[in-house]
Specification:
Blueprint lengths: L1 E5 L2 H18 L4 E4 L6 H12 L9 E4 L1 E3 L10 H8 L11 E2 L8 H14 L5 E4 L21 E4 L2 H7 L12 E4 L2 H5 L3 E6 L5 H9 L17 E6 L9
Parallel strand pairs: 1-10, 2-3, 2-6, 3-5, 6-9, 9-10
Antiparallel strand pairs: 4-8, 7-8
Helix pairs in contact: 1-2
The structure holds 2-amino-2-deoxy-6-O-phosphono-alpha-D-glucopyranose.
2-amino-2-deoxy-6-O-phosphono-alpha-D-glucopyranose binds next to helix 5.
């Protein structure tokens, strides 16, 4: 794993945008795996700026999001469909038919998961996957568990994740208990992965991911086995790495 420690959130976002922009320039019809959460907001801002300056063109890009809550109404402001639209999709020219987010309201959730993996394969696989990291080491919504879940699946959210994500909702009771998430195999099949981490509350998870045992109790640790991962973290998230 390549580790880039940068000064702050702004530098992390800019560096990540450079990785994505170079992917789009090298392969305009690339497939991007995208993440939500507060961490990649700055990355999307930078990409929108680059697009507006005419530096990159998303016309031929296909995007697959990592995850979505189960059971939030389709246009719920905290749903990842709204997140992606507001932070990124409405500002750039990714063809609406090429924007994919798991449907957390599908009548048959298992069939939705299977169809999602199939759609990724049919698109040629993910060229570059963006990841954040949960305080408990989760990637996407792959929560600490006794085994790695391979494919896209329905997951019961961890108590820590529910508490962390409560800040986006009016009350903790509003946070969905389930989500659909790309699985570890789906993520690991991406040709290139960039993982972003900012803030001291991520320091422990970042340490575990980089130097801990490879274990499903810290899902991000599986990335140690991927041949092409770049971790971009700010000084705060790297606190435990500097000894
Ligand atoms: C969320 C998302 C993850 C994200 C993580 C960290 O619940 N499902 O994809 O990486 O938690 O979120 P944040 O960036 O807000 O700290």
């Amino acid at each position: 794993m390549e580790l880039l420690i940068v000064n702050d959130y702004a530098a992390m976002s800019y560096k990540a945008a450079q990785f994505l922009a170079s992917q789009v320039i090298l392969k305009p019809e690339c497939v991007m795996g995208l993440a939500t959460g507060s961490t990649p907001e700055g990355l999307y801002k930078e990409l929108v700026k680059m697009y507006q300056m005419g530096l990159i063109d998303f016309e031929k890009v296909t995007a697959f999001n990592l995850d979505e809550y189960v059971g939030l109404e389709a246009e719920h402001p905290q749903g990842y469909k709204s997140y992606m639209y507001n932070h990124f999709f409405k500002h750039v020219n990714i063809d609406p038919t090429n924007r994919h987010i798991p449907d957390g309201n599908a009548a048959q959730l298992d069939a939705e998961c299977e169809a999602y993996d199939y759609a990724i394969k049919r698109a040629g696989g993910i060229d570059i996957q963006v990841l954040g990291i949960g305080r408990n080491g989760h990637i996407g919504f792959n929560e600490p568990d006794l085994k790695f879940e391979a494919e896209t699946h329905v997951v019961a959210l961890d108590e820590k994740t529910i508490r962390d994500n409560a800040r986006f909702f009016s009350a903790i009771e509003q946070v969905p208990r389930y989500a659909i998430s790309m699985g570890v195999k789906t993520i690991m099949q991406a040709r290139k992965i960039i993982l972003l981490a900012s803030g001291k509350e991520k320091a422990e998870a970042v340490y575990g991911m980089l130097y801990g045992d490879i274990t499903p109790t810290c899902p991000a640790s599986v990335l140690q086995l991927h041949p092409n991962v770049t971790v971009i973290c700010d000084f705060q998230a790297a606190t435990l790495l500097k000894k």
